[in-house]
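Support request, priority: normal
Reporter: lab tech (M.K.)
Component: structure prediction queue

Hi team, I submitted a job for DUF4179 domain-containing protein from Bacillus salitolerans yesterday, and the status page still shows it as pending. I've pasted the exact input below so you can check whether something in the sequence is tripping the parser. The sequence length should be 446 residues. Please let me know if I need to resubmit or if it's stuck on your end.
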Amino acid sequence: MTIKHEDQIERELKSFTNQPLPEKLDQQIYEGFANGRRYKNRWDVFKHTGLSVAALFLFFVLSVNYIPGFQKVAGDIPGIKKLVEMVTYDKGLQDAIENEYIQVIDKANENEGMTITIDNIIVDKRRLIIFTTLESTKDYQEVGFKSIQLQDKNGVTIGNHLLSVGTYQLENNKGSLMIDFAWNEDQDFTNELTLNVEVGEYNFESKEESERIKGAVPLSVKFPVDLEKIQLSEELIINQSVEVEGQVIHFEKLVSYPTRQVLYLSYDEKNTKDILQLVDLRLENEKGEVISREAGASINGNHRTISLTGSYFQNHKELNIVFSKVMALDKDKTSVVVDLEKSTLLEAPDQQLTLRDVTKTNMFGLENTLAINFNITPGIDGNNHFSLSGSFTDATGKIFHSGQQSSSSGEYSIYIEDQEYKSPLTFEVNYYPVYIEEEVRVRVKE
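Reply from support: The job had stalled in the queue. We restarted it manually and it finished. Here are the results:
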């Protein structure tokens, strides 16, 4: 399944790059999908496959009895225990359910022994979470999506979204799953939407993406949206700038939606470094409690739009933006240049990065593919977070796009089409284990 997005979305899910990468990650990219875990190969793989900010492959088994305040809601909305188990990773969604910010749908469609039911939805101007149940008359253990499409009441496809979704793990021919649509701009939904999907048995053993879904069946469900229940966003103007070792960051505003918060900031054009990430970015209240964490980001020049998990339904006396350090490179050291003909590394940010080799491969089931393989030495904190942009140029300046990227402990590979290039090739760095060590606090509300 391939979901296209705006090319400007380059550094999605930045919040997860401050977590240690597991060994054998390239294999986990396959295994995680089958086992209901989110992909760990989190750069252009997400952009090209539609996976994003929320770790929707995780199914939690925490009992609703241990989540304060949820008992009341559990008696009011059908199947709420199942909902709670599916959103325990996201405090913002927990708050939404606890405050009954959810719409009951109960609409279904059946075709060729497959039935998909839209049980409930949570929707605001930036996000639509669809809680679904799938039943099959066939003895499948796992069912996946070949395609997913969302249309308004006029039949117009609603695009330019990030999509997070996993596979149905069936027990007794039945399973539940969330489908999470997210947008970088406010949406004006119609009062009826249509979810179009193709579902079939998921074949994990196939490395060919086009062959992983067997016997795909089309299903289409129209469902109502109560527009009057979509609550408005709340905006806090910040208009503050901070300086970290001579690098200036402008914090503009924080906008809160029922399912997430969005922080707008920019980096000063006079900065001598390219800021790649504000590490461990979070919101804290007056007690120093973390109430919201980064869940994704998009980039447009020097401007950043950062999504946080949300605290819309909470009323805090004080809010502070906090981050522990800054990932940054000198602006003249953000390129990686590779001579394909000689298999040599001509330019890199520093000596931490070395070129291992350039090989032909069929990784991810891709044909006619070159793997450019690097080794990366951990930084002073022991981390070796490294990734490249999804686009690159040849010696003539012609722009190309890579397919997949993978990483394991100390190793990184980017996969490009095997064709004639005018060497050398130039890639831009997205992440690199070099940091400015300084904790920063910015008062948002007092």
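The chain is about 10% helix and 45% strand. Residues 1-77 have pLDDT under 50 and may be disordered. Let us know if anything else looks off. Ticket resolved.
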